[in-house]
Amino acid sequence: MRFVALIGVLALAVVPQAWAAGTSAKTCDVRAFGAKGDGTTKDTAAIQEAIDTCAGYKKGGVVKLSGGTFLSGPISLKSNITLNIAEGATLLGSPDREDYPKVTFARQPTVQPLVGSVNAENITITGGGTIDGNGHIWWEYVHAVKEAGVLGNDHPRPMGLVFDHSKHIRVEGITIQNAGFWQIVPYYADDLVFRNLKILAPHSPNTDAIDPFSSSNIVIDHVFSSVGDDNVAIKSGAINSPGPDAPSKNIMITDCTFENGHGLSIGSEIAGGVQNVHAERIHFKGTDQGIRIKANRDRGNDVSNISFKDIDMVDVKTAILITEYYPKAAPDGEVPSMPMGRLTPRFHNIAIENVHATGSGSAGTIVGLPESPVEGLSLKNVDLQAKTGLKIAYAKVAFDNVKVKADEGENLTVAPTATVAGK
């Protein structure tokens, strides 16, 4: 488990300048720059001035929000800044849509996130308080809009936190909730830690909790999320991407609890590929999916060296879903083989171990493409109890102590296009 050891060292070794500065770092209280913190006055300019001023110090500094609700439009973090939102304080997104300038992100038109960084490093967000995107104004805005969840649509919504081409990032000990769109997005970012967080936006459209996008060396640890879409979605490139796209890789997800949401996902947009993802000690309760790897011929690439271990699921609709036909779980009838291309999904070297699921609607579906079957997939010590059983097609799978108990129909259905060793 060299990868696990590497991630452990990474988590301990990340000590950005702003954190290491300790008491020598300057403190910029946003109230000293004119912020009111009364929940009605817009404090955007005061908060941004505090950030810019602290960033001008040699060792950076701490921008402090305490004792109130600070209403704000988008703010931009700079290198060597700690944003300290004290317990009981809230950074609240402006309810005025015109406060969010149009920008280009991931080659697509959208609007500026509530909190963002571009080409910055050594950033910490902490303090015990809350970042609230005031998302209901955006959720109402996209009600019944076609493809509202696709980046680049004609009804853009602000994300919560975006770290764009940034590195050495730590977000710890706060609540992040109600972004208009995805909650936290590292984009072409490196060396990030997300620890001891609550991420909340239940019953809302496309409010993924954490979406690493073409980003590497990430720790997601002790995160509770209850959201309206993926609890975690690892991405790397858009649908029909012209390329080039960088992969997402070296991601450790540990000791997390996921409730409302679509589970722990890799995909669906993975035109740059995904490698070296390790998820361990994850509890799912009432999510739509548990373990999910998803793509299609218009958005795939290499997905390999993936492991899920010590996972328990309660009342999850689909326990395991590995599909190269997203948004469908499986094709309708026979599918003709197609030539391999740059965007063909290639799923291989995937380990699922010590998984227990009860009360599921479906034990799961594992299905590859005729031209690109799922290969090197192992299930060990897996116990799935569900209304319907596990279905496998276009895949090579190894079982070791796998139990599937279906209330209806077959426990396990293996298509002629698949092989399952050890069943």
Shape: elongated
Uncertain runs: 1-23
Rg estimate, integer Å: 22 Å
The percent of residues in helical segments reads under 10%
Domain Rhamnogalacturonase A/B/Epimerase-like pectate lyase: 29-83
InterPro entries: GH28_Enzymes, Glyco_hydro_28, PbH1, Pectin_lyas_fold, Pectin_lyase_fold/virulence, RHGA/B-epi-like_pectate_lyase
Signal peptide: 1-20
Protein name: Polygalacturonase
Task: Fill in the keyword field for this structure.
single chain, 423 residues, mainly beta, 24-stranded parallel sheet, 4-stranded parallel sheet, 8% helix, disordered N terminus, glycosidase
TL;DR of this structure?
The chain contains four helices and 30 strands.
Q: What report would you give on this structure?
A:
- This protein is mainly β.
- The chain has a domain of 193 residues.
- It is 8% helix and 48% strand.
- It has a 24-stranded parallel β-sheet that branches. A four-stranded parallel β-sheet has the order 5-10-13-16.
- A hairpin with a 2-residue loop joins β8 and β9.
- The longest helix has 12 residues.
- It is elongated.
- The two termini are 26 Å apart.
- The N terminus is likely disordered.
